[in-house]
Amino acid sequence: MPRHDLIIVGAGPVGMTLALALKDSGLDILLVDARARGAARHDPRVLALSHGSRLTLERLGIWPQLQATPIETIHISQQGRLGRSLLTAADYGLPAMGYVVAAGNLAAALDDALAAAGIPIQGDSPVSSLTAGADNVTLKLADGTLEARLVACAEGSIQGSDAPELVERDYAQHAVISVATPVEGHAHRAWERFTPQGPLAVLPCGSDCAIVHTASPAEADALMAEGDDAYRARLQAHFGERLHFASVGPRARYPLLLRYRPDPVGPRTVWLGNAAQTLHPVAGQGYNLALRDVWALAQVLLRADGDPGAPDTLARYASERRLDRQGTIRFTDGLVRLFSNAITPLAHARGAGLFALDLLPPARHFVAKRMMFGARAWP
Length: 379
Known about the structure:
Helices cover 34% and strands 31% of the residues. By secondary structure, it is α+β, with helices and mostly antiparallel strands. The strands form three sheets. Strands 5, 6, 12, 13, 14, 15, 16, 17 and 20 form a nine-stranded mixed β-sheet that branches. Strands 1, 2, 8, 9, 10, 11, 18 and 19 form an eight-stranded mixed β-sheet that branches. The model has no long low-confidence stretch (mean pLDDT 88). Keywords: FAD, Flavoprotein, Monooxygenase, Oxidoreductase.
């Protein structure tokens, strides 16, 4: 039975980033993925990367290969109500608050780097179950079994890995995503517009704008059924007149929910990315939190003496990540529940809060640093 030091389940951006962070560790690493090798290169999504994520990708040597669109200003407002706030990179002496990259572009850069490092990826290998023993984990695949001293689950759900204490919350919202072409330039500004149906995000992406339009499931059905021109008009009315859209491309949709493991580690197993927590896209923290988790785990494993799956090693990682992880989960969940309603007293309070955020630099800096570096607010 093939035995490795570390098996990473999932060769998407999260799993590949962990492998690359450990390329000089001396560990015998294997990535296994249910999809064919290179499938992540065709991921149509876009990712919002924080400034802190840029620093991590620079350390890994990936950043120069990415075609990233900088976000220099973030405009936060609520539909039909007073109150707005601006977060500007110049206030922090940074070139950008964050960046927008194509998920496929990031995956391609990571895949190329792993090939150059000689770290293998075994495609077309869905893992049906994993069983932890005293000194190894056995992974069952369709065509055989593998063993590892540590397994990092970076994607999907695997039989035997489900946590009975898993926390789930269905927001009763769907995200309709598309790319729109603006009439005027976006000036590297991102908009987060809160509406009673849920947040609407407009992100600069090349010369276009990436749209994340939150709606109820029934409303999402209607938005997906409309023709391009009708949907563009609906989007324009929903967004307002700060930016005008000339056209809108193909749309896709997915349900929005909160799903996370209170404890991201188990016997010789650690969960990362969507396997550890699935967040609402408000504030764009999903991949950024995952990347901070990956970097922290890599540093703990590099400092570990001997067994990478030892209980004290995994406990150290969980302890180091507890504050940021719980803080980010609560931050995004709180934003969704606070802003996705039309209750009049709350609407007035939200407007006052946005005014205060704009007028009080310490409060604004707190939010900005959390978005750039997480709940611990440092790189």
